[in-house]
Amino acid sequence: MPSRTPPPTWASYQGSIGDRSALFAALAQRWRIDSALYPGCYLDLSPSTAIADVTYVDMDKRAARYFSSPGLADQELRGHGVEDERRFAFIHADYSTPLPIPERSVDLLISLYAGLVTESCRRYVKDGGLILANASHGDASLAALDPTFEFVAAVLHDDHDYRVDATELDTYLVPRSRSTPTPESIRASGRAVPLTREAFAYLFRAR
Ligand SMILES: C[S@@+](CC[C@H](N)C(=O)[O-])C[C@H]1O[C@@H](n2cnc3c(N)ncnc32)[C@H](O)[C@@H]1O
Q: What is the pTM of this model?
């Protein structure tokens, strides 16, 4: 029998993570971003407030239920003041398996608190495209060690706003420990590498 309980919503999830719309507005203001891929999105619909075409991926059933509820995401975006046409798709899958999207097709890959997304999904980013990764699970530190990525900015967050900082980049992503982490040690630990200066997330350009 179909479940009668209402699906979870982005609005209710904001109670846990806040509203990240200002983050994506700050990115879209600085770079041209027409499309994004968000593996491990759960119920975070905020990229669609600023980006015209977003593909969301998650293996969680609640995320699948949310995105398959007719009109619900559209309604939440309109309630958020988004009037422009938005295209979004949801793929109910493990992002480490091949996804039904073309390689080198998106302007932005989003990796927030969902594991080592960057390694699995980098292939979907256009040459010259952007990767937004945070320190969770060591993803940003792993990206920083990848010679095919260029670190271009940090994203800072305070209670009220998100800000892109492209100055003094050499002060970010510096491990606190004197022993330099390697890709192997980061993958094996699956944890954030403690850093001397923290940011909400880090932006890389795919070369
Ligand atoms: C802690 S939540 C973070 C959600 C969202 N990115 C955020 O920042 O609020 C992690 C999400 O990643 C999803 N996830 C983790 N590993 C995954 C995988 N291999 N494939 C698809 N989804 C995955 C989980 O199902 C969960 O919804």
A: 0.97
